[in-house]
Amino acid sequence: MCRSPAAEKLLALYGGAAGFEARSRGTAAQPYCKMPRQITEFLARQGVTSLEHKPALAGEADIDWADLILVMEGVHRDILADKFPQSMRKTQLFLDYCGAGGDLRDPMGKSDKVFEEVLSQIDDCVKKIISK
After folding, report:
1. CATH code, domain carrying 72
2. Helices (DSSP H) in the chain: which residue ranges?
3. What is the mean pLDDT of residues 106-113?
4. Using one digit for the tens of pLDDT, what is the confidence trace for 42-54?
5. Taking Cα atoms as reference points, which of 55, 4, 50, 12 lies closest to residue 34?
6. Running DSSP on this structure, what letter comes out for residue 57?
7. How far, in Å, CA of 118 to CA of 73, rounded?
8. Residue 71: how many other CB atoms lie within 10 Å
């Protein structure tokens, strides 16, 4: 409901015309949760017009559909490895894939400044993904 949907929306914005597709899925997603205000405001400033998002758990069909699975934290990779062992051949940490390295901190419950920093990291990384 936070980092992953932001990355999905930014990938569609910056790379949709070039054929990039993404599905935001979680390892503990609750379908009744909404993206935090800080996320929707940041995305709107970037030019995202479709701000709707319904959190969903990663499933077998999502794993099979994906060419690449980018997770925000190592614990997400571990959960996917346990539930979907076949996912490991195509799973990487989001920041590692972008060349920044490590886990992307979770801004939930933190200040607007932390949200802004994390979202700027996501924005920069998505642009790098598209340029690869």
Report:
1. 3.40.50.2300
2. 3-15, 37-46, 60-65, 74-83, 94-97, 112-131
3. 95
4. 999 999 998 988 8
5. 55
6. B
7. 13
8. 27
